[in-house]
Amino acid sequence: SEENRLRALCGPYTGWAGFNFDCALPEKVMLELMVEAARNGIRIGSFSPGILDLYEQVDRRAPIAGQRWLIEHVGQFDREQIKRIRDLGLVLQAYSSKWIGQDGEALRERLGESRVHQVLPMRDLLDAGIHVSLATDNVPPTLFVPIAQVVGRLTDAGRPLAPEQALTPLEALACASREGAWLSFEEKDKGTLELGKLADMAILSADPLCAPVEQIADIHSVLTITGGHIVHDASSTG
Fold this sequence. Notes:
Oligomer: single chain
Distance between the termini: 47 Å
Number of strands: 7
Largest sheet: 4 strands, parallel
Mean pLDDT: 91
Number of helices: 12
CATH superfamily: Metal-dependent hydrolases
Strand order of the largest sheet: 1-2-3-4
Order of helices and strands: HHEHEHEHHHEHHHEHEEH
Protein backbone atom coordinates (compact mmCIF):
# COMPACT_ATOMS: atom_id res chain seq x y z
CA SER A 1 0.00 0.00 0.00
CA GLU A 2 1.05 3.62 -0.34
CA GLU A 3 1.19 3.93 3.45
CA ASN A 4 3.55 0.97 3.75
CA ARG A 5 5.72 2.31 0.94
CA LEU A 6 6.06 5.69 2.64
CA ARG A 7 6.78 4.08 6.00
CA ALA A 8 9.48 1.93 4.45
CA LEU A 9 11.15 4.91 2.82
CA CYS A 10 11.59 6.52 6.23
CA GLY A 11 14.31 4.07 7.21
CA PRO A 12 16.04 0.86 6.23
CA TYR A 13 13.71 -1.31 8.32
CA THR A 14 10.18 -0.80 9.56
CA GLY A 15 7.87 -2.75 11.79
CA TRP A 16 8.67 -5.35 14.40
CA ALA A 17 9.62 -7.93 11.75
CA GLY A 18 12.15 -5.70 10.02
CA PHE A 19 10.51 -5.39 6.62
CA ASN A 20 12.65 -3.56 4.08
CA PHE A 21 11.14 -1.58 1.22
CA ASP A 22 11.90 -2.74 -2.33
CA CYS A 23 14.09 -5.61 -1.14
CA ALA A 24 12.64 -8.26 -3.46
CA LEU A 25 14.83 -9.78 -6.15
CA PRO A 26 13.85 -9.62 -9.83
CA GLU A 27 12.00 -12.78 -10.86
CA LYS A 28 14.72 -13.93 -13.26
CA VAL A 29 17.37 -13.61 -10.56
CA MET A 30 15.18 -15.42 -8.06
CA LEU A 31 14.54 -18.23 -10.52
CA GLU A 32 18.25 -18.84 -11.07
CA LEU A 33 18.92 -18.85 -7.33
CA MET A 34 16.09 -21.31 -6.76
CA VAL A 35 17.36 -23.62 -9.51
CA GLU A 36 20.79 -23.70 -7.86
CA ALA A 37 19.13 -24.36 -4.51
CA ALA A 38 17.27 -27.33 -6.01
CA ARG A 39 20.46 -28.71 -7.55
CA ASN A 40 22.21 -28.52 -4.18
CA GLY A 41 19.40 -29.87 -2.02
CA ILE A 42 18.62 -26.54 -0.38
CA ARG A 43 14.93 -26.27 0.42
CA ILE A 44 12.97 -23.15 -0.41
CA GLY A 45 10.01 -21.87 1.58
CA SER A 46 7.88 -18.91 0.55
CA PHE A 47 4.45 -17.34 0.73
CA SER A 48 4.94 -14.95 -2.18
CA PRO A 49 2.11 -14.58 -4.72
CA GLY A 50 2.81 -16.66 -7.78
CA ILE A 51 5.36 -18.87 -6.03
CA LEU A 52 3.69 -22.01 -7.39
CA ASP A 53 4.48 -20.89 -10.94
CA LEU A 54 8.12 -20.35 -9.99
CA TYR A 55 8.36 -23.73 -8.30
CA GLU A 56 7.12 -25.38 -11.49
CA GLN A 57 9.70 -23.53 -13.57
CA VAL A 58 12.42 -24.69 -11.19
CA ASP A 59 11.15 -28.27 -11.26
CA ARG A 60 11.43 -28.41 -15.05
CA ARG A 61 15.14 -27.59 -14.79
CA ALA A 62 16.07 -29.24 -11.48
CA PRO A 63 13.46 -31.64 -10.05
CA ILE A 64 12.39 -30.79 -6.52
CA ALA A 65 10.49 -34.01 -5.77
CA GLY A 66 11.46 -35.32 -2.34
CA GLN A 67 12.98 -32.02 -1.21
CA ARG A 68 9.78 -30.94 0.55
CA TRP A 69 9.76 -27.41 -0.74
CA LEU A 70 7.35 -25.33 1.27
CA ILE A 71 4.48 -22.91 0.78
CA GLU A 72 3.89 -21.05 4.02
CA HIS A 73 0.90 -19.10 5.33
CA VAL A 74 -1.31 -20.96 2.87
CA GLY A 75 -4.73 -19.46 2.43
CA GLN A 76 -6.61 -19.90 -0.82
CA PHE A 77 -6.25 -22.70 -3.38
CA ASP A 78 -8.58 -24.05 -6.03
CA ARG A 79 -8.62 -27.73 -6.99
CA GLU A 80 -6.34 -27.21 -10.00
CA GLN A 81 -3.72 -25.58 -7.78
CA ILE A 82 -4.06 -28.40 -5.26
CA LYS A 83 -3.26 -30.91 -8.01
CA ARG A 84 -0.17 -28.89 -8.96
CA ILE A 85 0.95 -28.79 -5.33
CA ARG A 86 0.54 -32.55 -5.02
CA ASP A 87 2.42 -33.22 -8.25
CA LEU A 88 5.39 -31.14 -7.04
CA GLY A 89 5.49 -32.91 -3.68
CA LEU A 90 5.22 -29.64 -1.78
CA VAL A 91 4.63 -29.30 1.96
CA LEU A 92 2.22 -26.66 3.24
CA GLN A 93 2.11 -24.66 6.46
CA ALA A 94 -1.39 -23.42 7.26
CA TYR A 95 -2.12 -20.12 8.99
CA SER A 96 -5.72 -20.51 10.11
CA SER A 97 -5.80 -17.56 12.51
CA LYS A 98 -5.57 -15.19 9.56
CA TRP A 99 -7.46 -16.98 6.80
CA ILE A 100 -10.32 -18.44 8.86
CA GLY A 101 -10.35 -16.32 12.01
CA GLN A 102 -9.32 -12.77 11.16
CA ASP A 103 -10.08 -12.53 7.44
CA GLY A 104 -12.78 -15.16 7.04
CA GLU A 105 -15.73 -12.78 6.83
CA ALA A 106 -13.98 -10.42 4.41
CA LEU A 107 -13.02 -13.37 2.21
CA ARG A 108 -16.59 -14.66 2.28
CA GLU A 109 -17.80 -11.30 1.02
CA ARG A 110 -15.10 -11.03 -1.64
CA LEU A 111 -15.24 -14.60 -2.95
CA GLY A 112 -18.91 -15.36 -2.47
CA GLU A 113 -20.35 -18.64 -1.25
CA SER A 114 -19.50 -20.37 -4.54
CA ARG A 115 -15.74 -19.96 -3.98
CA VAL A 116 -15.36 -19.62 -0.23
CA HIS A 117 -14.52 -23.34 -0.06
CA GLN A 118 -11.11 -22.37 -1.49
CA VAL A 119 -10.15 -20.60 1.75
CA LEU A 120 -7.71 -22.83 3.62
CA PRO A 121 -9.22 -25.95 1.99
CA MET A 122 -7.90 -28.41 4.54
CA ARG A 123 -10.24 -31.25 3.58
CA ASP A 124 -9.33 -31.03 -0.10
CA LEU A 125 -5.61 -30.80 0.71
CA LEU A 126 -5.58 -33.84 2.99
CA ASP A 127 -7.77 -35.85 0.63
CA ALA A 128 -5.21 -35.12 -2.09
CA GLY A 129 -2.48 -36.64 0.09
CA ILE A 130 -0.66 -33.36 0.72
CA HIS A 131 1.31 -32.85 3.94
CA VAL A 132 -0.07 -29.82 5.81
CA SER A 133 1.29 -28.56 9.12
CA LEU A 134 -0.64 -26.22 11.38
CA ALA A 135 1.08 -23.13 12.74
CA THR A 136 0.39 -20.05 14.85
CA ASP A 137 2.78 -17.66 13.05
CA ASN A 138 3.48 -15.85 16.35
CA VAL A 139 0.20 -15.33 18.18
CA PRO A 140 -1.70 -17.02 19.67
CA PRO A 141 1.14 -19.12 21.10
CA THR A 142 -0.97 -22.24 21.53
CA LEU A 143 -1.58 -24.66 18.68
CA PHE A 144 -4.98 -25.52 20.11
CA VAL A 145 -6.36 -22.33 18.54
CA PRO A 146 -5.55 -23.42 14.95
CA ILE A 147 -6.65 -26.95 15.84
CA ALA A 148 -10.03 -25.53 16.86
CA GLN A 149 -10.18 -23.37 13.75
CA VAL A 150 -9.65 -26.18 11.26
CA VAL A 151 -12.13 -28.40 13.13
CA GLY A 152 -14.86 -25.80 13.69
CA ARG A 153 -14.12 -23.51 10.72
CA LEU A 154 -15.46 -20.57 12.74
CA THR A 155 -14.48 -17.01 11.89
CA ASP A 156 -13.76 -14.49 14.63
CA ALA A 157 -17.40 -13.43 14.16
CA GLY A 158 -18.47 -16.94 15.16
CA ARG A 159 -19.86 -17.92 11.74
CA PRO A 160 -18.91 -21.17 9.97
CA LEU A 161 -16.74 -20.74 6.88
CA ALA A 162 -16.96 -23.56 4.33
CA PRO A 163 -17.66 -26.25 6.95
CA GLU A 164 -17.23 -28.94 4.28
CA GLN A 165 -13.48 -28.22 4.53
CA ALA A 166 -13.37 -29.10 8.26
CA LEU A 167 -11.07 -31.75 9.68
CA THR A 168 -11.80 -34.23 12.44
CA PRO A 169 -10.08 -33.52 15.77
CA LEU A 170 -7.75 -36.47 15.17
CA GLU A 171 -6.75 -35.17 11.73
CA ALA A 172 -6.15 -31.71 13.17
CA LEU A 173 -3.95 -33.11 15.95
CA ALA A 174 -1.90 -34.96 13.34
CA CYS A 175 -1.43 -31.73 11.39
CA ALA A 176 -0.22 -30.05 14.59
CA SER A 177 2.23 -32.80 15.52
CA ARG A 178 3.13 -35.47 12.97
CA GLU A 179 3.01 -33.11 10.00
CA GLY A 180 5.18 -30.53 11.76
CA ALA A 181 7.85 -33.18 12.18
CA TRP A 182 7.52 -34.10 8.49
CA LEU A 183 7.92 -30.46 7.50
CA SER A 184 11.20 -30.20 9.42
CA PHE A 185 12.57 -33.60 8.28
CA GLU A 186 12.34 -34.87 11.87
CA GLU A 187 9.70 -37.56 11.43
CA LYS A 188 12.14 -40.28 12.52
CA ASP A 189 12.60 -38.61 15.91
CA LYS A 190 9.34 -36.87 16.77
CA GLY A 191 5.78 -36.17 15.74
CA THR A 192 4.28 -39.44 17.01
CA LEU A 193 4.64 -41.50 20.17
CA GLU A 194 6.57 -44.57 19.04
CA LEU A 195 9.36 -46.77 20.33
CA GLY A 196 12.71 -45.20 19.53
CA LYS A 197 11.44 -41.64 19.16
CA LEU A 198 12.02 -38.77 21.57
CA ALA A 199 9.96 -38.88 24.76
CA ASP A 200 8.15 -35.61 24.04
CA MET A 201 4.57 -35.52 25.27
CA ALA A 202 1.99 -33.51 27.17
CA ILE A 203 -0.78 -34.36 29.58
CA LEU A 204 -3.68 -32.12 28.59
CA SER A 205 -6.41 -30.39 30.55
CA ALA A 206 -9.07 -32.04 28.38
CA ASP A 207 -9.35 -34.64 25.63
CA PRO A 208 -9.30 -32.78 22.28
CA LEU A 209 -10.91 -35.78 20.58
CA CYS A 210 -14.02 -35.50 22.75
CA ALA A 211 -14.19 -31.84 23.79
CA PRO A 212 -16.84 -29.58 22.23
CA VAL A 213 -15.25 -27.63 19.39
CA GLU A 214 -15.84 -24.32 21.18
CA GLN A 215 -13.67 -25.56 24.08
CA ILE A 216 -10.72 -26.93 22.09
CA ALA A 217 -8.90 -23.59 21.95
CA ASP A 218 -8.80 -23.44 25.76
CA ILE A 219 -7.09 -26.82 26.18
CA HIS A 220 -3.63 -26.52 27.73
CA SER A 221 -0.85 -28.69 29.05
CA VAL A 222 -0.86 -29.59 32.73
CA LEU A 223 2.35 -31.62 32.42
CA THR A 224 4.90 -31.32 29.61
CA ILE A 225 7.73 -33.81 29.07
CA THR A 226 10.57 -33.09 26.64
CA GLY A 227 13.24 -35.69 26.01
CA GLY A 228 11.95 -37.68 28.97
CA HIS A 229 12.28 -34.73 31.37
CA ILE A 230 9.46 -32.75 32.94
CA VAL A 231 9.76 -29.15 31.74
CA HIS A 232 6.34 -27.89 32.86
CA ASP A 233 4.15 -28.95 35.75
CA ALA A 234 1.05 -26.85 36.34
CA SER A 235 0.58 -28.34 39.81
CA SER A 236 3.89 -26.85 40.95
CA THR A 237 3.33 -23.40 39.46
CA GLY A 238 0.01 -22.71 41.08
